[in-house]
Design brief:
Elements lengths: L5 H8 L2 H5 L6 H34 L9 H23 L5 H18 L11 H7 L3 H21 L2 H11 L4 E2 L2 E2 L2 H30 L1
Antiparallel strand pairs: 1-2
Helix pairs in contact: 3-4, 4-7, 4-9, 7-8, 7-9
Length: about 210
């Protein structure tokens, strides 16, 4: 989604975005147009990646994704695509140069794996690092993927005590205090973050537009 929002930076740099101000589009509608296109790109990329990896694991490791996980995974992909796009939009709003965008893109691309506890298992992170991971909506999407794709396997093949350790180590379910989030809780958290990010993005769009005037 961050790469897709690069069009917004290019439009700023070429002043094409100024031409849009001659239309009836409000600053918020203008930003939402970029959000919709970037969300679609992000959603489609997740579907393609999911399909490729599902085939790979089926052929190489003989591990098939259970059919009941397909629809929930698609739902979380859509939620994750929208939340990530809104978060990235807030960053991109302050970027006016393609050079700055490309440099920041490399940094965000490298950091994204750590933000969702992919490069390093969640259980190996310090408490402070775990709390930082919980600030990003994509981490809840990733946790739900782990739950949906690993839950059936772990129930069948892993002893109960080891399964609890595996859940904590991989970050299959996040905890707030003693309360363990399930997939429905994750969806609610992502939806809440989407609302907050949409409000922040709308306010910033209005403020930046006033500043330009």
């Amino acid at each position: 989604s961050f790469q897709a929002l690069g069009q917004m930076v290019r439009d700023k740099e070429s002043h094409a975005i100024d031409d849009m101000k001659l239309t009836a589009l409000t600053p918020v509608s203008e930003s939402m147009a970029y959000v919709v296109s970037a969300t679609i790109v992000s959603f489609l990329m997740q579907i393609i990646t999911f399909a490729v990896m599902a085939v790979y694991f089926s052929v190489v490791d003989k591990a098939d994704v259970v059919h009941s996980a397909y629809l929930p995974c698609l739902e979380f992909m859509l939620l994750g695509a929208l939340s990530a796009t809104l978060l990235n939009l807030i960053i991109v709003m302050f970027i006016n140069s393609s050079t700055t965008f490309s440099r920041l893109s490399a940094v965000i691309g490298a950091a994204a794996g750590f933000m969702v506890a992919t490069y390093m298992p969640y259980g190996t992170l310090s408490k402070n690092a775990q709390n930082i991971v919980k600030l990003f909506p994509s981490s809840y999407e990733a946790a739900s993927f782990r739950s949906l794709l690993l839950n059936k396997l772990s129930q069948q093949d892993v002893p109960a005590r080891m399964r609890d350790q595996l859940i904590e180590y991989l970050g299959i379910h996040f905890k707030f205090g003693s309360y363990q989030l399930n997939n429905f809780d994750n969806a609610l958290v992502i939806l809440g973050m989407i609302v907050i990010l949409a409000i922040v993005g709308s306010i910033l769009a209005l403020l930046l537009n006033r500043k330009k005037k």
